[in-house]
Amino acid sequence: MSENKDPHVGHVAQSVEGVKFVYDFTEGNKDLKDLLGGKGANLAEMTNLGLPVPPGFTITTEACKVYLDSGDEPAALRDEVSAHLDALETKMGKKLGQADDPLLVSVRSGAKFSMPGMMDTVLNIGLSDKSVQGLAKQAGDDRFAWDSYRRLIQMFGKTVLGVDGDLFEEALDKAKEAKKVTVDTDLEAADLKKLVTAFKKIVKKEAGRDFPQDPREQMDLAIKAVFDSWNGDRAKLYRRQERIPHDLGTAVNVCSMVFGNLGPDSGTGVAFTRDPASGHQGVYGDYLQNAQGEDVVAGIRNTVPLAELESIDKKSYDQLMQIMETLENHYKDLCDIEFTIERGQLWMLQTRVGKRTAGAAFRIATQLVDQGLIDEAEALQRVNGAQLAQLMFPRFDEDAKVQQVGRGIAASPGAAVGKAVFDSYTAVKWSRSGEKVILVRRETNPDDLDGMIAAEGILTSRGGKTSHAAVVARGMGKTCVCGAEELEVDTKRRRMTVPGGHVVEEGDLISIDGSSGKVYLGEVPVVPSPVVEYFEGRMHAGANDADELVEAVHRIMAFADRKRRLRVRANADNAEDALRARRFGAQGIGLCRTEHMFLGDRRELVERLILADTEAEREESLKALLPLQKQDFVELFSAMDGLPVTIRLLDPPLHEFLPDITELSVRVALAESRQEPHENELRLLQAVHRLHEQNPMLGLRGVRLGLVIPGLFTMQVRAIAEAAAERKNAKGDPRAEIMIPLVGTVQELEIVREEADQVVAEVEAATGTQLKLAIGTMIELPRAALTAGQIAEAAEFFSFGTNDLTQTVWGFSRDDVEASFFTAYLEKGIFGVSPFETIDKDGVGSLVKLAAEAGRATRPDLKLGVCGEHGGDPESVHFFHEVGLDYVSCSPFRIPVARLEAGRAATQSEGSDHR
């Protein structure tokens, strides 16, 4: 072990082989979040800014990783903690847990990414049967000291020793009942002293040991408990939900205690430099007199708006407003702040870049540009596609007849409708059965996380914008209404009583509006969001709140469009979808699935084609289909005039166009038993049996159909060519691209291409029109990706069909596996997210990159795109930008999301290049 004297902190900093596990608040800064966690890095930053931060130190995430990997803390950690504790005691002029005037500390978690309430915190460490007397004497307040002691035993018992927290709550409720009071602040010192005795008995019985009286043992056990909480069930669930890596670990912050429960001139609160729900500037937050921090976050006692602090403590209020302005200008973003006032002295306990709703994110980004704090490129990084998608969700129809039964705080926007459920278990159970539910609670706590994820929205009768429910819901983009006080929630009887006496039983439909805080009985109809109306061209920027949001979206989208390299096309199969896609900003069609054109009235023609016994019969069926197909393409080319339209030739197995085998067998059997004519049904049944495959997605489909069914693909190519010629002769600008599906070898493509080129030449001769029809293929089989260099010799473009490529690379049948075992894989951490939702970069992505490079090595001007579901996934869009594709294609509704993310990907690349 070596000792390094640090001149900045004036104490001995212990290290082993250059690895340092503990940093004083004076040593770090906001850029050390990987090492110190978000909380520790920001406490250090505020300390460096000269703000009033209680002294303390941070144990690094590296120490946590060693602990989690080995099951024990690093050998050097105890000595480093001792050195920093000694320095802290010297600075404070008192020792941890000493009998006469004890130093007390908090032990708080702090990961790199904010995980509100998901990991553990213990306050008031250092209190014991002896030191509580000294704290009472020093503070001149017996009640405060015994209240602090009961809080320590309660938090320590639950967090460190694993005692059921409900046992402490029940004892607290009994104490209030005995005193005939409703809030814990009405309990006197003698009551709290008895409660401490009751709490210690609970610990002894449930944990099998006494509550520790040694303050250092308390601190060491609390540090290990925080480390352990990184792998707690709720923390792992939250990380999966938020896609936070599991290997980061958490830092631990040991901070000298300041007390908000020292009487009416003390208190605690949470503040935002802007409204996290709307983005508007003003005074936003909650304050609670005579309380400690967990009282605010838990929502157990109703707070007052932060603005009321001005009349309660003008000096602290003015100082807080000045600090908030300092922090926002320093971080150049919305800041979320925790503070405590101890007998008129303001202390800053935490700051971080605050979570915000989707609408607030867009508004704040443009506001900060206007204030000159950030540029447009940074504004683009402050929003994301998931937030934009949220803004496109429908909202409640304000003109509908509704029965409003309550109103709370608009904590997280959206329009949520579902059946009321009163516990997390039921929310998950009903949701898995396909029911839409609203989780109704007095207040939520971290144990409710799985139910919050499962629910359409969250409704609580207590808490404010800084409560657990509000913070977590905003982070997840989940609709939430908090603090609807007039609603009486009875979780034991599974019901909610609303003003007027009406009772909402579990299973009754309710609607909640996270934008207004209103609660309604029954199902309220929804209307399109103003953002969708903007993309549709039906709304423009103006003066009202919705128009402000539209203006913010418009500005950021315009910048994204200027910056992005990736073009964005649509998956669209008809003119109506194509026109809508174009309004949403599509730059062409990347996938037109022609099989959708063969359904409905045309199914009979397909059946005749399949049943054809002679070449003449087959030709007759194809001849009947040709003009119908041609008209489909004329309409598409008209809707997308001047833009590329990629048309995929028939892809699925032919048996999909025939009746169900079981249903048809029954019809034939019934006809035979009744001796009724059934020749056609019998022929159909024979065809179904002939075409039936055990694994149809790996059978006779795609290019294989075109090679086995003579004339099928040539009919489609002729329809495309004739439609393009007709459109061109009408002074249009058709840009057709013919895509051959499921190619696994270049020979397949060469045969189909030769036939297609011949058909196109015939149409050109017949119409006197020169056509430029690009012919390419889908890369959706591993072999196609691996032999892309060869295939590029016959293809003018590749479109990666990442849905099928994911199925074939993983050996998954999407229709089966998502329902059967994906949930287990996600819960066990095998997947961070479904590979059908976000591209598997290591497997599927490697094949895409390989094929792109090999294809362009053969044909440098090869056009590359993607048309699977991943084309509209934000994270996947960034990958496609990185590997050099030319465009992504997605459903019309996802086009704005893809445009935004393509712009973000481009600006991120520029930033990396500049660095």
TrEMBL record:
<feature type="domain" description="Pyruvate phosphate dikinase AMP/ATP-binding">
    <location>
        <begin position="308"/>
        <end position="359"/>
    </location>
</feature>
<dbReference type="GO" id="GO:0050242">
    <property type="term" value="F:pyruvate, phosphate dikinase activity"/>
</dbReference>
<feature type="domain" description="PEP-utilising enzyme C-terminal">
    <location>
        <begin position="551"/>
        <end position="903"/>
    </location>
</feature>
<protein>
    <recommendedName>
        <fullName>Pyruvate, phosphate dikinase</fullName>
        <ecNumber>2.7.9.1</ecNumber>
    </recommendedName>
</protein>
<dbReference type="InterPro" id="IPR002192">
    <property type="entry name" value="PPDK_AMP/ATP-bd"/>
</dbReference>
<keyword id="KW-0547">Nucleotide-binding</keyword>
<dbReference type="InterPro" id="IPR036637">
    <property type="entry name" value="Phosphohistidine_dom_sf"/>
</dbReference>
<feature type="domain" description="Pyruvate phosphate dikinase AMP/ATP-binding">
    <location>
        <begin position="77"/>
        <end position="302"/>
    </location>
</feature>
<dbReference type="InterPro" id="IPR000121">
    <property type="entry name" value="PEP_util_C"/>
</dbReference>
<dbReference type="InterPro" id="IPR015813">
    <property type="entry name" value="Pyrv/PenolPyrv_kinase-like_dom"/>
</dbReference>
<dbReference type="InterPro" id="IPR010121">
    <property type="entry name" value="Pyruvate_phosphate_dikinase"/>
</dbReference>
<dbReference type="InterPro" id="IPR013815">
    <property type="entry name" value="ATP_grasp_subdomain_1"/>
</dbReference>
<dbReference type="Pfam" id="PF00391">
    <property type="entry name" value="PEP-utilizers"/>
</dbReference>
<feature type="domain" description="PEP-utilising enzyme mobile">
    <location>
        <begin position="435"/>
        <end position="517"/>
    </location>
</feature>
<dbReference type="Pfam" id="PF02896">
    <property type="entry name" value="PEP-utilizers_C"/>
</dbReference>
<keyword id="KW-0067">ATP-binding</keyword>
<keyword id="KW-0808">Transferase</keyword>
<dbReference type="InterPro" id="IPR040442">
    <property type="entry name" value="Pyrv_kinase-like_dom_sf"/>
</dbReference>
<keyword id="KW-0418">Kinase</keyword>
<dbReference type="Pfam" id="PF01326">
    <property type="entry name" value="PPDK_N"/>
</dbReference>
<dbReference type="InterPro" id="IPR008279">
    <property type="entry name" value="PEP-util_enz_mobile_dom"/>
</dbReference>
<keyword id="KW-0460">Magnesium</keyword>
<keyword id="KW-0670">Pyruvate</keyword>
<dbReference type="InterPro" id="IPR018274">
    <property type="entry name" value="PEP_util_AS"/>
</dbReference>
<keyword id="KW-0479">Metal-binding</keyword>
<comment type="similarity">
    <text>Belongs to the PEP-utilizing enzyme family.</text>
</comment>
